[in-house]
From TrEMBL:
Region called Disordered, residue ranges: 217-242
Organism of origin: Streptomyces humicola
Domain called Methyltransferase type: residue spans: 77-177
Source organism, top-level taxon: Bacteria
GO MF terms, alphabetically ordered: methyltransferase activity
A GO BP annotation: methylation
Cited Pfam families: Methyltransf_11
Matches recorded under InterPro entries: Methyltransf_11, SAM-dependent_MTases_sf
CDD domains registered for this protein in UniProt: AdoMet_MTases
Protein name per UniProt: Class I SAM-dependent methyltransferase
Lineage: Bacteria, Bacillati, Actinomycetota, Actinomycetes, Kitasatosporales
Length: 242
């Protein structure tokens, strides 16, 4: 176990190298003066395979989905479900009676592999949905859990996307964030984490050499009488999250 950290750092460096675009390839698209990362489609097959994911990011799907709190009938949205690395296991974790919306800008239905893994097993219903994580096609306060498995870092404006997360989560709902450090770096990561901490209550945060895993909770509405000055204050704070 003494070797685990240096080994982990070494794998992190290799992982970062793997995910950096080679210099002879076209640079990522510039958006509003900021570089925008998109994982090349060809990399999905590789990074969605359990072996490299376990080696590079200590991603163990069965363990990772336990970050998602479950109650009967939980409505969970997997934002950026593309590689479907987590989808089947999340559906099983949520269990019968739950709903898992698999949202991606380019949804391809429920992938065959996911359907195969779920066949005959108790699991939540999986509903694919096309949409942008920065403008979620979901009603206010309609979701129990939002899960981002290394997808927030691909959005041009992660703090703005967290504002959307706050809008669609019900009070008391949970936000589960997995961030991949090589792609989410420097001031961008600091700003993202600062907004997450301002909008939500941090419940658990684990920082590894390559990954940050965190679970936040949207504060429940304050239980104060509607007409009191406290209620007015709380109401204003609620309406202006930033
Ligand atoms: C590195 S992949 C991770 C996919 C999957 N969660 C996994 O772990 O295999 C990032 C995902 O984020 C999605 N994504 C990128 N920009 C997005 C956006 N603006 N809104 C929602 N998803 C987005 C991509 O389509 C892709 O599926």
């Amino acid at each position: 176990m003494r070797l685990r950290r240096p080994l982990s750092i070494l794998l992190g460096i290799l992982g970062a190298g793997l995910l950096q675009p080679p210099s002879r390839r076209p640079r990522p698209v510039q958006k509003r003066g900021r570089r925008r990362w998109r994982t090349p489609a060809a990399l999905y097959a590789l990074i969605s395979h359990p072996l490299p994911r376990a080696l590079l990011g200590w991603d163990l799907v069965r363990r990772d989905v336990r970050w998602v709190p479950v109650a009967p009938g939980t409505r969970c949205v997997e934002v950026g479900s593309g590689g479907a690395f987590y989808t089947a296991r999340l559906a099983r974790h949520l269990g019968r009676g739950g709903l898992l919306v698999a949202l991606d800008p380019e949804p391809a239905g429920v992938p065959k592999a996911v359907r195969r893994r779920l066949r005959g097993r108790p699991a939540a219903r999986v509903a694919p949905l096309g949409g942008d994580g920065q403008r979620l096609p979901l009603a206010d306060e309609s979701v129990d859990v939002l899960f981002y498995g290394y997808s927030l870092e691909e959005m041009p404006d992660p703090p703005g996307a967290l504002g959307e997360a706050h809008r669609v989560l019900r009070p008391g709902g949970h936000l589960v964030l997995f961030l991949w450090r090589p792609v989410m770096r420097g001031r961008r990561r600091i700003a993202t984490e600062a907004i997450a901490a301002a909008l939500f209550e941090a419940q658990s945060v684990r920082r590894g050499p390559q990954n940050i895993r965190a679970r936040y909770r949207k504060p429940a509405r304050p239980a104060v009488p509607a007409q009191s000055p406290e209620a007015e204050k709380a109401g204003t704070a609620w309406a202006t999250p930033f």
